[in-house]
What we know:
6 helices, disordered N terminus, 14% strand, Glutaredoxin, 6-stranded mixed beta sheet
Amino acid sequence: MRQLIVRLVLGACCALASVPALAADGAELAGREAAEWNALDWIGSEPLRLADLRGRVVLIRWWTDTCPICLRSAPALNALHDRYAKRGLVVIGMYHPKPVSRDISYEEIRQAVKERGFEFPIALDLDWSNLRRYWLNGGRRRATSVSFVLDKQGRIQHVHPGPEFHEEGVGRHAQCRADYLEIRQRIEQLLAEPFSGGEK
């Protein structure tokens, strides 16, 4: 029964991803300078500031450990990190607990990171303050598993409003694959652009 429920949820979320209104969700943010994130704890990295990442392309993905959609997107995040890190891409996984009031230990989060094979920096947005600033305060949103691609100047150039994307996808998952390929193409375009602020 539990597996059936998970399959229904996954199917529904992929179906949502193909709805045109959802595909446009967040388009109004394109071109805006991304806000510096509030003070965060980090796993797998020294504390990072967005200002220190100028000259790099940055992919930020909000995820949580209880979400099957986030789990299905994890391989794509790993693939993007593996493929482009040496060319200047920085992938950041912004962990947010669901619900926001849920009590979770750092060790549980570290275990979730390990299970997903994440080798990129993980920031802990435990009170959702950054998720709200970047995403939820901007209007009605259908998912919290949002992804942002920032250019080398720190401007938002692409928003994937959730819920999932991955390399493989046929049938009802075809949109998930199309979304992944669009993110990858956008990253490649931004990596090829010059950085006007000097070399990092």
